Amino acid sequence: MKMPEVSEQPEGDPPHRRGRPQKPICETVGAAHRTWLEPVRDRFAASGLTLDDLVARSGYSKTRLSELLRGEGYYPGWEITYSVVRVLEIPIGPLLRLWKAAAVEADKNTAWIKSRIRDVRTDVVEEQPIAHLGLTQAMWQPYTAYAQAFLQSEPRARQAARETFDILWLTWDRATTSPDTPRHAWQLLRSTVLSRAPKRPGGHPDLRAAAFCTTAQAQTGDLVERVARIDIHARFFDAIARLPTDQMDITVLRYLCGIDPDAVPGVVGLSPAITHTLDHHARGALNELFPDTDTQE
User: Fold this and answer.
1) Considering only Cβ atoms within 10 Å of each terminal Cβ, which end of the chain, N or C, has fewer?
2) What is the Rg, in whole angstroms, of the alpha carbon atoms belonging to the chain?
3) Is residue 253 within 8 Å of 147, Cβ to Cβ?
């Protein structure tokens, strides 16, 4: 479907927007629901269409479409969601995966989800952008390892990584026009992971559970010594989580995930020089707090 033409504007001015501005998303909308709803709202805002246009092209009433775009009321079925996605020319595959994850968050059972999907006949064949596919293949392992350091559960870590790549696909135009696509992708992954990670009272992520997974404590046979090591490592990992964000990322990737130091700059989207400097400052800060703790351990 061809997008409607937008009248020319002076350079630097925002595109003309007909109709009323969108009302904000309801505060009760869950995190997974918001994940796909925000890109849909952004695409609608950029399309130049009004709600009346959406009504005419989707076949649904203005009230129902307004509720969908705000996340108001019951979680929307796939049929009405698909009707909006189709009008706005949003990639269906990643949107459907995000819709299903949010349906689970909204306590919809498997039978309900499958039934709603069966109600819609989708014959669209989508091609994943080659560059997006390459990024997915290159970053799947480090992204998943980073997510697991904070979320502990491997299924939750894989879900966070999948969600990140699906959001990137939905917003690929924005990602590729950013100054640095790998950096944009990493910041999205980090935001996705940390939004799901448990938090300490101070608001920083809780990394203490990683203390149970260190090589040193696993090889310690004495129970008293093992408990002592866990206590030290729990405080050590809590200190890592209190580091400035980029320092924390590099420390987690290098020392908790075991990512090769030469690969870390490409993962976080920073130059080798900046990455080295951040690593140096992070190790210096940790060594001051724990002078007797081996960072490599």
Assistant:
1) N
2) 23
3) no
C-alpha distances in Å from residue 296, one per residue of 80, 283, 286: 52, 10, 12
pTM (2 d.p.): 0.82
Q: DSSP label at 205?
A: B
Structure tokens at 59: 């076949």
Token pair of 51 as six digits: 């709600």
Please give the DSSP secondary-structure letter assigned to residue 204: S
Residues 102, 32 contacting (CB under 8 angstroms): yes
Cβ contacts of 126-132, under 8 Å, gap ≥ 24: 126/91, 126/92, 126/93, 128/93, 128/169, 129/169, 129/172, 131/176, 131/181, 132/165, 132/168, 132/169, 132/172
pLDDT in tens, 35-69: 999 999 999 999 999 999 999 999 999 999 999 99
